[in-house]
Amino acid sequence: MKKTLIALSMAILSQPLFAADLLESWHAAQKYDANFAAARAGLDAGREKAEQGKALLLPQISLSGNANRNTSEYTPENSSSVSSNGNNYGYGLKLTQPIYRAEAFAGADQLKKQTEQAEVIFRVAEQDLILRVAKAYFEVLGSEEKVKQTKAQKEAVAQQLAQAKKSFEVGVSTITDTDEAQARFDAINSAEIAAHNDMAIKRNAYEQLTQLNPGHLKPISNRQQPTPPQPNDMNTWLQRSENGSLVIAGQQLGLDIAGREIDKYRLENSPTLDLTASYGDTWNSAGISKSGGLDRTGSGQIGLQLSIPLYTGGDRSSKLREALAKKEQQRQTVEASRRDTAQFTKQAFLGVSSGAAQIVALQQALKSSESSLASTKLGREVGVRTTIDVLNAEQTYFSTRYDLTVARYTYLYARLQLAATSGELSEKDLNSVNLWLGN
């Protein structure tokens, strides 16, 4: 029984650790990332704006109460004074229902638009988190590939260095081959240290974002082949981004909100009409009551209250000028967002388009560099190539392999960026990119 348990434990420990993919990283970041949690809280706060706008047009009810100790002294001419003491209690209930308040109508619409803006801002935060997770994920894989590259180069250069030393010892090569191999070996040592340091930084950034183990991420597989943007027309994507960009939509709502702020101050001097109703009771006791006991007086009223602002000391005029300036500021911000979005769309479109072509070219270049390396090694064995030639061929092969890996990551990230420019980036796009991951 004990042997069985030991064997089972060894089997469990020998299994590969869980490898997270991009979709799982996104789900983890949704729960862990503090910036996204802040965005979610901001959405909850923003949704309350619409409720506050409704409240501007609904009845307002207030309850008041009082309890007083009253003392009075009456002194008639040529007579002695007469004092009276007693307690006074009372309460009042008042209702105010706005009937016409132009400023409140503008304010309610403004608050509703602020809720709409909060929804858009949260969707922007969702897309931003997708891009941040993807960037952190791909940067970890890229740094790991760099470590693999430098390690493989180091092993290859070490073999060439050993062989160059042997050849020099038996007199079949010059000291130049040995010196060149030694210089390459020393340089790759330095590059390996830098690669490990960069990998540690990238892993820490990923872990800080997702709280997942960055040492076991699914790498890029060779099963998928790149495709150009669909549709493969830049003007179509520019139109999509103009109509669907969340950044532009959020800024446009900001412009609408600024416009309603102007309306509020323009309408501030408009008459207001409210329906008012009130009811209250008061009690007087002891010396201040008419009966000498406890007197109760109840009163109620209902009516219309009209108010016409005449002069605010220049406050309304100043705030109106401020609102006009802020609207112009926001209008320019909207225009800047349109231009920036168009530029980002062009960059992302070209990133996908050229990235797909670059991957195909690098795949062929990798095959060619692999064949060239094999031929160069064979040429050295028969004496027509030197160790330097082999080192150069190995450098080309490893660099091409690394460039191909990075090109795949860059291509996939550009696809996500292109979807984001038109406001379409979602979990569906992550699923599509996830198909590229696996052993």
From TrEMBL:
Secretion signal, residue range per the UniProt entry: 1-19
Spell out the protein name for this chain.
TolC family outer membrane protein
Chain coiled-coil ranges:
108-167
| InterPro entries from the UniProt entry | OMP_efflux, T1SS_OMP_TolC, TolC-like
Q: Please give the family membership noted in the entry.
A: Belongs to the outer membrane factor (OMF) (TC 1.B.17) family.
Q: Where in the cell is it found?
A: Cell outer membrane
- Keywords attached to this entry: Cell outer membrane, Coiled coil, Membrane, Signal, Transmembrane, Transmembrane beta strand, Transport
